[in-house]
Design goal:
The protein is mainly α. It contains two helices and two strands; from the N terminus they run ααββ. β1 and β2 form a beta hairpin.
Length: 83
């Protein structure tokens, strides 16, 4: 029994029109982050989708993510690996 269809997280994609630009990030960058995060969650948190770019934005958005940084590393391919 499916309780929640995770595909709903990726359809339709977020667009920059749905976000407000700030001095730190453009609306397009915010939409790209939202789409990357939803894709990561829909893929059951697949490690290969947890890129350095996604990690950095998560750490800035939800500071508690950084607590795990000491026990992990970002590989040269840009993916996250626990030590």
């Amino acid at each position: 029994m499916t309780v929640f269809d995770t595909r709903a997280l990726t359809r339709p994609l977020f667009t920059d029109a749905e976000f407000t630009a700030t001095k730190w990030d453009s609306a397009a960058e915010k939409a790209a982050f939202a789409n990357a995060l939803c894709r990561f969650m829909c893929a059951d948190f697949r490690e290969s989708l947890f890129t350095q770019k996604l990690y950095r934005r998560l750490a800035l958005t939800f500071g508690h993510v950084a607590h795990d940084a000491a026990a992990s590393t970002i590989t040269s391919s840009g993916t996250f690996r626990a030590r």
